[in-house]
Amino acid sequence: MKILLIGATGQLGGDLLRNNPGHEIVAPARSQLDLQDVGQIEKAVRNAGPDVVINCAAFHNVPLCEEQPEKAFFINCFAVGRLAGFCREHDARLVTFSTDYVFGGEKRTPYVESDPPHPLQIYGITRAAGEYAAIAAAPEHAVIVRTCGLYGRSGAASKGGNFVDKRVDDAKRAKRLEMACDQTISPTSTDDLSRAVFRLISHQGVAGGIYHLVNEGQCTWFEFTKAIYEELGIDIEVVPVDRKGMSGQMRRPLYSVLGNDAARAIGITLPSWRDALCRYLKENHAS
Ligand SMILES: NC(=O)c1ccc[n+]([C@@H]2O[C@H](COP(=O)([O-])OP(=O)(O)OC[C@H]3O[C@@H](n4cnc5c(N)ncnc54)[C@H](OP(=O)(O)O)[C@@H]3O)[C@@H](O)[C@H]2O)c1
User: Fold this and answer.
1) Is residue 13 part of a domain?
2) Is residue 235 part of a domain?
3) Burial of 169 (C-beta count, 10 Å sphere; 0-12/13-18/19+)
4) Which listed residue (123, 151, 229, 255) is catalytic?
5) Which of 30, 77, 221 to mutate to test the pocket of ligand 1 (most atoms within 8 A of CB)?
6) What's the domain range around 8?
7) For 120-139, b where at least 16 C-beta lie within 10 A, e where not — what string?
8) Is 123 in the active site?
9) Engineered SS bond to 137: which of 72, 77, 85, 112, CB 3.0-4.6 Å?
10) How far is the CA of 57 from the centre of ligand 1 (A)?
11) pLDDT digits over 125-146, tens only?
12) What is the mean pLDDT of the chain?
């Protein structure tokens, strides 16, 4: 398969390149393909002539999206819709990513693909709008993968490094750490996610639609942090903090665990978050 990969320098993009089972991947740099330039998007799809376009790029710094809503809408919604349209015109499938933040957090059981979005802040609104834009432009070609709490070897440059690496660094400086216990999530390793994405695009039965792909299980950021230190045998006091889902004036979902129901129905499963964390720490933080 020929794949055009957008966002190859990110966490997920990096692991898609590392775990590529043998596809031909064209991965332009942001200087050649910026989602803020629709002309570049069209040119890249036309020139590459891909079977599949995988879009890992997004404007996903949540507080910054509140400050720059036009930019957030352009990258997360308008550009995704146009990209989907170009994919349909060139008969390429599109896999583009979305987020647990399309949900409002009122449930206490995992959100499934058919649950209605109810975003609480500009970021989630732009991502939900992006899902609709892609499906409206290319209902047969666009696959939306919602995921949550990503960490991977390449770190998330836009957020100054990934959550796990930052906690390992914290422990070098502090003996006590406060961590949010109000949000329950599905932390997900991009190593496992990238492998699941390749299984998804190789599956014959996958047409357009929404798929959730996260590591199995759930925890709060506080519990995730405790697990990092337990696995590494680091002695540090972690104090739970309940901010009731608020970051300043901005709301975050209290519960945004995703259920991989659609993927499981076609035989695609992911390991538990604890198993994934264990492997990540062994591979990247073994002393
Ligand atoms: N990280 C999470 O916790 C999380 C949670 C839920 C969903 N997701 C979604 O999962 C996907 C992958 O996330 P990730 O953590 O791998 O992201 P990431 O590490 O931040 O990487 C983002 C990639 O997109 C590129 N990019 C950013 N803006 C661009 C633009 N305007 N045009 C072209 N490329 C651009 C970045 O390039 P540069 O290297 O040049 O910056 C980078 O390669 C995204 O859609 C994200 O929103 C992530």
Assistant:
1) yes
2) no
3) exposed
4) 123
5) 30
6) 2-153+183-218+250-285
7) bbbbbbbbbbbbebbbebbe
8) yes
9) 85
10) 4
11) 999 999 999 999 999 999 999 9
12) 97
Instruction: Look at the block and give the residue holding tokens 């998007």.
Output: 41
Identify whether 244 is part of a domain.
no
Q: Output the domain CATH number for residue 77.
A: 3.40.50.720
Query: What is the mean pLDDT of the segment spanning 175-190?
Result: 98
The answer, yes or no, to whether residue 287 has pLDDT greater than 80, is: no
Q: How many domains does the chain have?
A: 1
Is 24 contained in some domain?
Answer: yes
Give the phi and the psi of residue 118 in degrees, each rounded to 5: -155, 70
CB count within 10 Å of CB 16 equals 27
Model confidence band, residue 205 (pLDDT cutoffs 50, 70, 90): confident
Hey, whose CA ends up nearest to atom 5 of ligand 1? Answer: 148
Measuring CA to CA, how many Å separate 200 from each of 20, 23, 262? 13, 14, 11
- For ligand 1, atom 10, the nearest C-alpha belongs to 97
Q: Which amino acid is at 108?
A: R
Pocket lined around ligand 1, Cβ cut-off 6 Å: 6-13, 30, 33-36, 56-58, 60, 75, 97, 99, 147-150, 156-158, 190
Ligand 1: centre distance to CA 72 (Å): 12
Counting from 1 in the atom list of ligand 1, the atom nearest the Cα of 35 is 32
Q: E strands, the chain, where?
A: 2-6, 24-26, 52-55, 93-99, 142-147, 150-151, 176-180, 184-185, 188-189, 209-212, 219-220, 237-241, 246-247, 250-251
Q: Is 182:245 a contact under the CB 8 Å cutoff?
A: yes
- Determine if the pTM surpasses 0.85: yes
